[in-house]
Amino acid sequence: MRDIRNIVVLTGAGISAESGIATFRGPGGLWEGHRVEDVCTPQALARDPDLVHRFYDLRRAALAGVEPNPAHRALARLDAEWPGKLLIVTQNVDDLHERAGARRLLHMHGELRSALCAACGARIKWSGDLPPDTPCADCGAATLRPDIVFFGEMPYAMERIEAALAQADLFVSIGTSGAVYPAAGFVQTARYHGAETLELNLDPSEGSGWFGQSRLGPASVLVPAWVDEVLP
Ligand code: APR
Predict the structure, then answer these.
(1) Which terminus, N or C, of the chain has the lesser number of Cβ atoms within 10 Å?
(2) Is residue 21 lining ligand 1, measured as CB closer than 6 Å?
(3) CA–CA separation, 120 vs 141, rounded Å?
(4) Which of 34, 107, 109, 193 is catalytic?
(5) 107 in catalytic set
(6) Does position 29 have pLDDT exceeding 70, yes or no?
């Protein structure tokens, strides 16, 4: 491996699978019994706010019953010990990376433990249920919704992510199917700027061919092994 200083890590649902959180594109094509377009679009929220709020209430409540696994803990160790730049970008809305101790972390698709005011844009830490029409503590409008980036909405912090990718010497993608853009395109951006690229996934992702190296297996095994390799 050449001289590596700046690392960008992208994680997806696969890293939390062994903690007991369902991935999105499992064999049945349903996410916890729902089609994503019924619970994960602005149209779904407008059509049936009770269903969408309830769906995310259940996902939020389920966080109490899961724990970070060795892959989350290995990335937290990388964060604590890596002397160069590091950005962990997760598509996951669970809080397992931060509960493992990761700090240089960005939730590009939002967070279950956050509420978003559709009127003023305030993002408010949230635990427990979030019924429709809950008033915003900042502006008072009854427009709080789950702080989840729905299909058709802009992910968070894209400028910061693009800047980190442009400086990356190494881009590592963990537990994501590569089916959803813009995250699926990060490997191409990183390559364009000269980074080495590595995929750690159970199965080859849709963009597997873009990676310089692809290692197949469970994240709980592959990620700690890779972190052991990369830490001095
Ligand atoms: N270890 C490593 N990889 C795993 C494991 C595991 N134990 N279990 C599953 N995987 C892999 C699967 O092989 C698959 O490639 O994780 C990937 C999960 O893919 P998806 O379910 O599509 O999840 P993700 O890529 O995170 O989805 C992206 O889609 O619906 C949206 O916004 C949602 O953030 C999500 C985005």
Answers:
(1) C
(2) no
(3) 8
(4) 109
(5) no
(6) no
